[in-house]
Fold this protein.
Amino acid sequence: MSSPDASQHSADPHTAEQILAMDAYLERTVVQPDEHFARIRQAADEADMPAIEVSSAQGKLLHLLARISGARRVLEVGTLAGFSTLWLARGVGEQGTVTTCEFEPRHAEVARRNLDAAGVGDRVEILLGPAEDSLTSLRQQQVEPFDLIFLDADKASMDRYLELSLELSRPGTVIVGDNVVRGGSVLTDQDDPDSAGIRRFLSALGEDPRTEATAIQTVGAKPWDGFSLAVVNQVPGR
Ligand SMILES: C[S@@+](CC[C@H](N)C(=O)[O-])C[C@H]1O[C@@H](n2cnc3c(N)ncnc32)[C@H](O)[C@@H]1O
């Protein structure tokens, strides 16, 4: 995966350089990813995979959310090379598990190698196939509810993933959705199916009595984007 590039930012080049420098500073000082994260990026780069993983700061946020919520069972939709999966797997600790969904066999293979090499392979299950099928199958198996769910695959299906996630949740489950701003195109692009999927997802998060949510815009190593954060409510009669 390529290193951060100021030309990806919509900010003017000077501001973009400053944003990248600041993110690098925050990464060095507080985020402090170890060498396994750099190796995952390198392995993904060598496998010609797209550089669409979360930033280190965002990955550490997922890790902290898992720890703060005491999550033991995490569900991830969108594995890629296992970068965010490693942050989450570290967050659940040795007794925890991460179930992650990926439909590209090559991505799943690279992720499996990366996660094994990082020493968390035994706590990560990769479900190969379209995420909608994997989530439906988990629901049919009546698995225990997940404590934290991270949605980061195709954006056109975000509302569908939310619905299935709610069926795999309990009151208190944390649901994080990535790329909910997409450089502002979520608001402005009426023809893009991914932006439309995010709009349906955000509307559902705001309107559904089962969720209490916010959404935060971000800039950093990644261009202008954002994530949503929700908790599943106790709904009478559920
Ligand atoms: C943004 S990347 C995930 C990045 C990863 N969460 C990270 O931050 O390291 C999205 C991944 O979802 C996978 N994907 C896309 N559509 C999918 C689908 N319908 N079902 C399962 N996986 C899908 C892609 O192949 C890609 O690997």
In short: Residues 52-54, 78-80, 83-84, 101-104, 107, 130-131, 152-154 surround S-adenosylmethionine (CB under 6 Å). The chain has one domain: 6-232. The chain is about 45% helix and 15% strand.
